[in-house]
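I'm stuck. Please check this protein.
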Amino acid sequence: MGIGYCVRAGIFGASLVSGLSFAGSHHHHDGDQKIYRFNLKDYQTDMRVIAKLGFDVAGVNLSEKTVDLVLSSDQLAQVQNIAKLAPTDSFASSSNDLDDKYHNPAEIDSELHALAAQYDTIANIQSIGKSHQGRDIWAIKISDNVDSSEPDEPAVLFNSMHHAREIMTPEVALDTVEYLLTKYASDAQVKHWVDSNEIWVVPMLNPDGNNKVWTSNNYWRKNTREDYGVDLNRNYPYAWGTCNGSSPNQYSDTYRGPSAGSEPESQALMNLVATIRPVFDISYHSYSELVIYPFGCDGIRSATKDVVEGIGLKMASLLPKDGGKGNYDPGTSWELLYSVDGGDIDWMHGTYGVIPYVIEVNSTNQGFQPSYDQWRNRTVAKMRPAWQMLLNRLEESGVRGRVNLNSGRQSAGVNVKVTSITNPTLAPQNFSLKADGTFHVILLPGTYSFMVTDGSNTLPEQTVTVGARREHIEFDF
């Protein structure tokens, strides 16, 4: 979760805006933070005011119109004195000892290496970069020919723990790895997924921040640049710092960093994405029981929203809420929460056409750090239909293509333009090629025109009719 947006009048009123100069300027109060819950009368308006004022939003409950804020004692006084707003039912969750059954950075490292060693024919672990403090950021690849790149197989990515305190999210990633590896030999569906795709999992993008959570501050969110940290999920270059969806203040929990893509952790994920070019991505966060899709800035939607949002709606419908009433709420961050700029899903979608989602696991009743015995297995099992749906969707309506590059021609600068003939009102999609000349486009059933160009030369277009199953197309360039 995070914060940022523009001010409108709401239950906080104009007087609270005057508190901006000091509400967001405090240093973190290690050990002096609690989570307080507030009722909101006008949910969207009041969320935007909260965001503008720089308070740390832990989570929301859309159906009950409540927001949880992580506040130090002096920040609580600001909310009460300036906004005349009292916490709901005196709700306060202290930063208590963590349940040590959750995985810390060293245990993630050990577990991934053990799994990769045990299942070495289908699993390969690699460091995709190092954190500020020199910890490896591990990715594990799962595929049948795991040591080689297979151009005709689409890639999919699952990543966790941009935010250090969200300790359930690496458990979801680890469960994905364990599920695929342990069932490969006995489950025909799992074997098909692994044999047909390149599946990548990054369980802990922010090991330094998580180490800080275990050693000094349960509610730490950012990485550990100097003494203030950067919110990794506001640091990506796409639309960085453009719509008041992040903070320039170093001590804000949504500090976007000194420059776009400045952090080694975000660079590690960016380099991986640039290399593997996943078709889909899920970034796991907690908490609020949401499925979020691009884009993060107010009023902006994906040009391919018919596909992107349709899959997001279906995904949310597969995820029942922990309280038993209804399913996860789908939408853009500006619809569900507030504007966000510099987020990873916007960067992936805007830069490479990845179809990415944030899933905010668990409810306000579970929070960041629920009982492991009570909630770990329930949560990871609940997430399986979402990531499995994406693996199945790779084989449904769409086109897997290849541009056979003649000697000396590079894939860089070569683009594929996809235009819907069935529905001319849809915006054309433009895709750059992977280094091996391949591309994978997720489409709705219909008829499409495909055109390949490098800016100087354009190949004759090809027309493809897409049904319920994926089609294939080739060009010689």
